[in-house]
Records
---
Amino acid sequence: MLQIPSLATTALITFNALEGFQAKDTPRNGSMRLTRPTRGRRFGMLHIAEEARVLELDAHVQGGRDGKGSGCMAEADGSDTVCYSMDTLNTVLAEMVIVVPCKDEDLSVIRGVISAIPAPCLVILVSNCKRGDDDQYIQQVAMAKGFGGYGRQILAIHQKDLMASAAFRAAGMSELADPVQGTIRNGKGEGMLLGIALASAFCPERRFIGFVDADNFHAGSVNEYCKAFAAGFAMSPSPELEDTMVRLRWSCKPKMRNGRLDLVTEGRCSKIVNSWLNKLFTPCSNQRNGGHKGPANTDANSPFVTTGNAGEHAMTMNLALKLRMAAGYAIEPFHFIDLLERGHLKHPGEKQQAVAPNGTLSPLDKPVRVLQVRTLSPHFHRASGDEHIRRMWATGLGSVYHGLAPYRSMPGSNDGSISKLREEVHSFAVERGGIDGAKGELPQPNIYPALENIHMARFREVLESSLGIGSFRAFGFTRWKQS
Ligand code: GDD
Ligand code: MG
């Protein structure tokens, strides 16, 4: 006779089956698997790696049972992959600050972005929203307080806070202030600089800093961005030995066109800026690298720099303090120019060192590795008009054009390749409407000095005295009790 098991027996069988399954086959915990860049190009102290890709967001940890979870696998396409366990990623994330620059995004969108930032990260919200009637900043602070109540560490500040510009002035950096208003100038780059200074002054124990835009409608992608930053640092040497920058390229940007969703793989601005950075950083084929041969297997024709305008990027804190930063949206392309100049054009080891008129610019004190990572998530954000995009590529290219002005060629060469590239960039801008009418040149964004030169203790002292009084707020910290 057929035995019908009781409900209790069925439950027991199911439970046992699951237990057996878990013991044998379930991965230890979530982890990120990426391709490992094995090729790259070196420019003196600067090393730029070819693009890596995130392959899995929650992968089996192959090997690496020691908690580091760095098991390697060979892929069908010949690339290596590497897998980092959540333990490893969390260790890095616990040393990371994420700066969220925001202007006038809806509160719900900013909330989504912060909600998706991994819990171990400390968040700094730098807002440049309009103030006055219907003050959005008050709502942003209330939101930050809510996150603090759940144990998140979060700092919030308004870019136009008079004490913020006073702190920079007192610390010896008055360049950030608007000469008329006295407050910090408008601009995303300026907001990010304020975020870096806050991180350095108030959270000096955190060794990594990342940036994510606040206008992201697909909040979950931000979680992947932060983990990709962490994976990039996990695959790099310790920050004591080498500085690292991780720049993200999104899998695509969804765009509505004629009622259809187009998945665009390169934005309008990135397409232009990347193409010129590629010309600058393409070795041998056109002698632009002054005879610095890339590895034999580097394909000079495939796009190499894919992250010229990476709004989502992260770096070691030491590097964030060391770099000069450009104003507004030129901040990301100019990273490459400052790194090239400090790591190669002014590299002390080079025989034929190109000399910039500004003799005060110090070379890099240790090697810098730039990792470019393509995420799985698309980037879905506020659509920008053509004029915004035109200004963005023009100031980005302007930072390249003006930044390279002191140089003719790469070290070790006398081929005038940098001068030629600048002429071509200028002609392109004339043709495509990128010239600043008044000067007849590409726009020249402000370049701010490195933050390492400011008196950080003084900066902290001034701002700490305004905590809870001006716009500066801290939530989720035991050392500052905040209302
Ligand atoms: N604090 C602050 N101050 N934030 C600002 C300011 C400012 O003056 N201006 C813009 N932001 C914030 C926005 O609120 C948004 O969260 C983020 O910076 C990016 O600004 P968008 O205006 O959305 O820029 P975008 O989408 O055109 O360009 C983004 O992607 C580019 C790559 O495609 C930016 O991240 C660019 O820097 C990046 O190059
Ligand atoms: Mg945007």
Note: Residues 1-27, 64-69, 285-300, 350-359 have pLDDT under 50 and may be disordered.
---
Amino acid sequence: MKSAIIVAAGKSARFGEDKLTALLFDKTVLSYSVNLFSQLCDEVILVTNEEADYGKKVKLAKGGATRFESVKNGLALLDKESTLVAIHDGARPFTSKALAEKLFSVAEKDGSAIPYTYVADTAYYDDKPLLREHLKLLQTPQIFETEKIVAAYENCRDNTSSDDSQVYRLQYGKVSFVLGEKSNAKITFRDDLPKYRIGYGFDVHSLTEGDGVRLGGITIPFNKKLLGHSDADALIHSIMDALLSACGEKDIGVIFPNSDESLKGIDSRVLLKRVLDILDKKGCEVLGVSSVIIAEAPKIAPHVDAMRKELSDILSLPFDCVNVSATTTEGLGIVGDGKGIAAQSMALCAYKD
Ligand code: MG
């Protein structure tokens, strides 16, 4: 039986207010961890001094004067059938399901699984530089065989420990480290909450005699094609402009000028990947894209899912986070006359720097 203890009794002194009830989109920071472990575990124990009601599966334990005491209060409430327990900071809302599942499977084999990340910056201890290759930054959830971590806490005489792996290591000599995820950050300061940015993009290309239109990275059979310097994929162009706008960059007309001969006839999917590299270098992550294609013909609706699949693969997003809808202009204007196809896109990005 899998259990989770979520420690949420801290004082948020460096954040300025209770960081666990601060909003991250439409939900509190704490609710992300509670929801994740409610999905993965048979029981969840929330250590808090606040009122909370997350349903039957989530039991409440009182917070102690130190983190050590809080965890101990959580361990005391574990079901007797518990075999593995994840101990997690309530202030880490970005833990992925994949990481938690990987840690559970390592802990089942090794008795413990401790996620860590590398240190990228130069680090000093007082005035001495440290060899960063030897440094690990530990994260949670840290997962243990329940019986072992309960015994380790019972035998531990140092109740100042702020990390469960230290308590386990004191008793058993070593722990199993597992590479964690940089995105699994702990929220300590107000700046740690990502800054969200939206971007908007619009594009139109004219239709000419041809054998199919490129839209969303696929070819839709038609007796015309879109005309442009590249493959004229108006949908991808509008998405690129939305992404560039969200991260404060200039538009694709500036970044990929039609005077650049190397871009002649280029597949717009290649350009989209270049835009993603620009975002990546700026620490800007795409969370979702929503687009509309405006066309009289060909019929777009039968091809929407294929475009969404293609785009979500390139953007590394779930299918549901990339949507494309289609409309006409009721016969009005250049689109209504069948002279061209237009596309509009909105993008939501998280900009961490
Ligand atoms: Mg264009």
Note: The chain is about 30% helix and 30% strand.
---
Amino acid sequence: MSVNEFELIARYFTGRQDTDHNVILGIGDDAAVVNVPPGQQLVVTADTLNEGIHFPAGTGAADIAHKALAVNLSDLAAMGASPAFFTLSLCMPLADEVWLAEFSRGLFALATASDIRLIGGDTTRGPLSIAITALGLVSTGTAISRGGARAGHAVYVSGSVGDGAIGLRIAQGELTMNGEDNDYFLTRLHRPSPRIRLGTMLAAHVSAMIDVSDGLLADLDKLATASGLGARVEVSAVPVSARAEAYLSHAELLHMALAGGDDYELCFTVAPDREAALLQQLQGFSVPVTRIGVMTATAGVECVHADGQVYHPARRGYDHFHH
Ligand code: ADP
Ligand code: MG
């Protein structure tokens, strides 16, 4: 390595953000020390991105950094937590300073925009892998789990689903589009927008929540299972982007929207008597939410067309150990 580990941390990771009064000791000691404000709880999540598994070799360093942090922020959002601190365990085959400068730029752009502070980490040599642990804060007892839904609660999803999976097909060379659309879908894949503000706002209204990382049906199934329930989704209600609609056949589009991963939208359930208040609150928000179905007492996620006919999806989502 042209720079040693100590120099590397000092150059690319230390002192890149404003100080935070809750960080008593940040990068540079054996461990970090942070304050948890009275009346609040820590919410902790970890996610790793490995080259060749979670992103193709050759993905831009700033995009990798953005996504590694974004997926963790999305998990915090799904708990209704506000981002606070994170650690970064970076494993690289070599210390390429051009790559590190780009990585650091992408990382701190999102970190600063999301008000989360890097407080430590680890730097090792090996196949490229980025492991982030993110810590968020909630008022005591207000975190939203997957397990709080009841039969009859409405199911909603934020934004639109399917674009991430379309981006992946472009990245893999299986789909080609004009330049502008290409960039749009690749941005959706590589630079997801974690729904942080939406998540913390929803926490006051929803009964259960999950972020959509593996595919809408797969993730809704996890929420339903955790709640001891099933769900029924009306497929024509599932929100897709106008650009996706312009490119894909209806059948392909449904498949991408229901089973494609990498969307990082929020899927949540709302008690019927809370829906009006929630929709009122949502009016000032730039991210739309759409009602796509209802929680049911029967296990499993069933998909139906508008006329009530059952729709059988070919595949439900992504599983790292089972294809
Ligand atoms: P130790 O040997 O005590 O584990 P290290 O030399 O690994 O300490 O790390 C020195 C300091 O730099 C620690 O505070 C650690 O949290 C921080 N650090 C190491 N790697 C990173 C990184 N990639 N990003 C942020 N902080 C890091
Ligand atoms: Mg160490």
Note: The longest strand covers residues 40-50.
